[in-house]
Amino acid sequence: MADIPAKAPRSQRAYNTNLASEFHVMSVLYRLGMDANLTLGNKKAVDIVVVLAPGDTITIDVKAVAGSVDWLVGSTISSPRERHFVVLLSYEGKFGRIDEMPKAWVLPHAEFLSLIKTAKPPSIMRYVSRAQVRKLEHRKDAWELLKERATAGATNQDPRA
C-alpha cells in the first residue's frame, strides 16, 4: 500500500500524529475492555482517563512521533504519579500507511520521568531517547500494565460503593 503524501504544514502533521495516536490508544484500551475517556484541550498533561470503578481512575499521556526520532517532551509533571502512565508510539516513518500499526511502549510515569534528558546547552529541549526506549523490551506492547492496574482497582473496590 502506498504512503499517503504529507502535504500539510509541519504543525498540522504533528497535530494529526498526536490526535491519531490518542485514538489508537483509546482503541486498544476499549479492546482490553477498559472504560477510557479522551480529555479535550490543546495543552494538557493527561490525554486519557480510564475509569476503573467509581472514584478509581488511572491517567495516560500519549506521546507519538511519525518518524524514527526521539520523543520531544514539553512541560510535564516532574514528580512521579502512581496512577499515571505514558504510552510512547512510533510510526517508524510510516504514519501515512494505514496498514502499519505504530510501535508502542507502555511506561509507568516514574519510569518515563527517569528517561527524560535535556539537550546540550544552549538548547533547553527535553527529550526521551529513541535508542534508550528501544532497549526496554519489557515495556514494548506492555498493555498488560494498564490491565493489571484495572484488575487491581476492581479487586480493591470499596464495598460500600
Note down, in words, how this protein is organized:
The chain has helices at 10-31, 109-115, 130-134, 144-155, and strands at 35-38, 48-53, 56-65, 71-73, 84-90, 103-108, 116-118, 126-128. The protein is α+β, with helices and mostly antiparallel strands and 161 residues long. It has a single domain (10-154), classed as Trna Endonuclease, Chain: A, domain 1. The strands form two sheets. A five-stranded mixed sheet has the order 1-2-3-5-6. Strands 4-8-7 form a three-stranded antiparallel sheet. β7 and β8 form a beta hairpin. It starts with 9 loop residues before the first helix and ends in a 6-residue tail after the last helix.
Note the main attributes of this structure:
alpha+beta, disordered C terminus, 5-stranded mixed sheet, 4 helices, 3-stranded antiparallel sheet, 161 residues, globular, Trna Endonuclease, Chain: A, domain 1
How is this fold's topology laid out?
Elements: H1 10-31, E1 35-38, E2 48-53, E3 56-65, E4 71-73, E5 84-90, E6 103-108, H2 109-115, E7 116-118, E8 126-128, H3 130-134, H4 144-155
Parallel strand pairs: 3-5
Antiparallel strand pairs: 1-2, 2-3, 4-8, 5-6, 7-8
- String of helices and strands: HEEEEEEHEEHH
CATH class: Alpha Beta
The separation of the N and C termini measures: 51 Å
| Approximate helicity band | 25-40%
Strand residues, percent: 25-35%
**What class would the helix/strand composition place it in?**
alpha+beta
Main sheet overview: 5 strands, mixed
Number of domains: 1
CATH architecture: 3-Layer(aba) Sandwich
Rg calc: 16 Å
- Poorly predicted runs: 153-161
Fill in the CATH topology.
Trna Endonuclease, Chain: A, domain 1
How many helical stretches?
4
